[in-house]
Amino acid sequence: MGNFTKWLGAGLGFTFGGPIGAAIGFAIGSFLDGFSEDEFKQEQIDYKRKKKPRNRKDTVNTQSGDFEMSLLVLASIVIKSDGKVDQRELDFVRSQFLSMYGKQRANNAFKLFKGIVKKQISARQVCIQIRENMSHASRLQLIHFLFGIAKADEFVVEAEVEEIKKIAGYLYINQNDFESIKAMFYDASGNAYKILEIEKTVSDDEVKRAYRKMVKKYHPDKLRDLGEEHLKGAKAKFQSIQDAYEKIKNERGM
């Protein structure tokens, strides 16, 4: 258990407990012989004793490991939403973790992920834990990553979209933000406007105002606290905003 819990504990805060912590404990027990749920609970108790309590007035500052564990748990829910676990989706998760974390950390994370997938998890309970401890910008990034997983098998089925929509609701992501991120993964007419959260009928000045607003909302600097490893996804999301704006400008001759 030693090296694995050392890896976990190094970057975990709020996800070491609650329903996410329970999923982690189950996952470890699924591949670590002789490890019991009680042992993981003791690890949690020991960790909480060492952890400094967060003041209600403190700024939410999500640790890299917390974001990582939240991704693993939510991804396992989305992957199973269409009734099967597609190998291409698993490969996408693995490739994303390799690009973000490097080989050793990605191998640990994916080993954990394969255990988490086996457990039935309440999306609502997990999302309550996340939204109470994670910034709005970080929650938007989670939704972006989940759509990437759903699209990994080249076809997003309705069950996956509905599951991500349900998760977004639990995370207090509003409908406009959800539709904006969703549109980043489709090449359909009018999607550039959806990404900027405006209608086709708006004026050029309104397009510019919408663009400036979205730049502020999705700027990668808002996710600096998650560590450099998570900025790649943030930059991809930000680039979608740039591309949408350029497409509208070209269409209108702005």
Automatic annotation (TrEMBL):
> What is the organism field in this record?
Polaribacter aquimarinus
- Name this polypeptide is given: Molecular chaperone DjlA
Q: Where are the transmembrane segments?
A: 7-32
Q: Does the keyword RNA-binding apply?
A: no
Q: Which PANTHER family match?
A: CO-CHAPERONE PROTEIN DJLA (PTHR24074)
SMART domains, sorted: DnaJ
Question: Which part of the chain is the J domain?
Answer: 191-253
Question: What UniProt keywords are attached to this protein's entry?
Answer: Membrane, Transmembrane, Transmembrane helix
Tell whether Transmembrane is among the UniProt keywords.
yes
| Pfam family of the protein (one) | DnaJ
